């Protein structure tokens, strides 16, 4: 699935289930919507959590995103704890050079 693609899947017998799935532009999360209008965001399990720019690898572009958010925001938060700190820098360094599909 490419960022922005929307796929629909419903159960024909009940009409329930997920009716749309969309990837965020940075490909870090999927947004799921149900027929009852509930929305859920889930982290992309195929990507690396430190690939902040969504280009398929962990590189200097991701270091730049993390350093910009360091101590002041959540833009570089691969551990998902709500801040950008040394634990996030450690996760990014561990993933440097990692590529994935």
What does this structure look like?
By secondary structure, the chain is α+β, with helices and mostly antiparallel strands. The chain has 2 domains: 6-43, no CATH class; 46-101, Type 1 dockerin domain, CATH 1.10.1330. Helices cover 20% and strands 19% of the residues. The protein is built from 2 helices and 4 strands, in the order ββββαα. It has a 4-stranded antiparallel β-sheet, with no helix packed on it. β2 and β3 (29-34) form a beta hairpin. The longest helix has 10 residues, at 60-69. The protein is elongated and about 40 Å long.
Major sheet characteristics: 4 strands, antiparallel
Number of domains: 2
Give the helices and strands as they follow along the chain: EEEEHH
What coarse outline follows from CA principal-axis ratios? elongated
CATH topology-level fold name of the largest domain: Type 1 dockerin domain
Q: In CATH's first tier, which class of the largest domain applies?
A: Mainly Alpha
Number of helices: 2
CATH homologous superfamily heading of the largest domain: Dockerin domain
Tell me the span between the first and last alpha carbons.
11 Å
Oligomer: single chain
């Amino acid at each position: 699935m490419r960022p922005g693609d929307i796929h629909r899947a419903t159960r024909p017998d009940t009409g329930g289930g997920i009716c749309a799935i969309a990837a965020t532009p940075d490909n870090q999360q999927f947004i799921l919507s149900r027929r009852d209008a509930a929305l859920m965001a889930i982290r992309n399990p195929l990507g690396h959590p430190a690939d902040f720019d969504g280009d398929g690898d962990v590189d200097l572009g991701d270091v730049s995103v993390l350093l910009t958010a360091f101590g002041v925001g959540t833009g570089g938060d691969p551990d998902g704890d709500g801040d950008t700190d040394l634990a996030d820098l450690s996760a990014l360094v561990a993933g440097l050079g990692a590529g994935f599909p």
